[in-house]
Design a protein that fits this description.
The complex is a heterodimer of chains A (about 80) and B (about 180). Chain A is mainly alpha-helical and about 80 residues long. Chain A is built from 3 helices and no strands. The termini of chain A are far apart. In chain B, about 25% of the residues are buried. Helices cover about 70% and strands about 0% of the residues of chain B. The chains are: A mainly alpha (about 80), B mainly alpha (about 180).
């Protein structure tokens, strides 16, 4: 574990989590949630959990971002909060 | 203040961020009005818990839990002087991990290298677990990631059904429509 890298990624993680919940456009929220997933994937590669990292990159960042965007396109893009 | 920061915040920074992320996710699940926002909060909650478990497996100075066969092949192919040199290099790093050898081979290698550390004598297995991060939480969390994506997919499908039924994804509007249909 490289602690400088660790702290920087964790701070960005909290920032992206807050932004993806704050934006009112659901498509941007989905994209920023994809950024969050890739950041946490990077964090796991850095903490030595490579198997978790590539599962997260494929399944978490890829598939769940695609699911979210597909749902946003099939429903409403606006959010009240 | 500085002492508190150095002894409680910095060494356990992963756990602090785990708590913060979990509370962010829980706050979103409770207070957000839009159903997709609630689901994003749920995913953040899940990844926070996975972060906690993966942080438990981290050790200082440990490497990725993948075992390489190089040690064994080298010790068989090369001469004993090379082998002893190799062992010396390893013991200077305080990492007694000569690979999978039989007990007799290992004892001989230690004698040749002049290595009399108690670890070399007492270790019953050839691979030193201090060299590797703990892979057990990783394996458990692989399942958790896949289950999390499955729940997210089902929940988003239910969201699409709700949108077809009510024409909105806002929780308050859905509740008022349900109340009206109950009264009417």
């Amino acid at each position: 574990m490289i602690w400088q890298f660790d702290i920087i990624i964790l701070i960005f993680l909290v920032i992206t989590a807050v932004i993806s919940l704050r934006v009112r456009d659901l498509l941007s929220a989905s994209m920023i949630f994809g950024v969050y997933s890739f950041l946490i994937c990077l964090l796991w590669a850095e903490m030595g959990a490579v198997d978790v990292a590539f599962t997260e990159a494929a399944v978490g960042a890829g598939v769940s971002a695609v699911f979210l965007i597909a749902t946003v396109f099939n429903t409403n893009r606006r959010s009240s909060d | 203040m500085r002492e508190f920061f150095e002894s409680y915040i910095v060494p356990y920074f992963n756990f602090w961020v785990y708590v913060i992320l979990m509370m962010i996710g829980m706050f979103a699940m409770i207070t957000k009005n839009n159903l997709i926002k609630k689901l994003i909060g749920m995913s953040i909650f899940q990844t926070a818990i996975i972060l906690f478990y993966v942080s438990l497996g981290v050790k200082d100075g440990a490497t990725i839990p993948i075992y390489f066969h190089e040690h064994k092949e080298e010790s068989h192919a090369e001469g004993t002087s090379e082998d002893a040199h190799h062992k010396e290099e390893e013991s200077s790093h305080e990492s007694v991990g000569p690979g999978i050898l039989t007990d007799a081979e290992r004892k001989q290698a230690h004698l040749e290298a002049g290595d009399h550390t108690p670890h070399g004598e007492a270790a019953g297995h050839a691979v030193n677990p201090d060299e590797f991060t703990n892979p057990l939480p990783h394996v458990l969390m692989l399942t958790a990631i896949v289950v999390g994506v499955a729940t997210l997919g089902v929940a988003l499908a239910v969201c699409q059904l709700i949108y077809r039924e009510f024409g909105t994804l806002e929780e308050s509007e859905i509740l008022t429509q349900i109340k009206q249909s109950n009264h009417g």
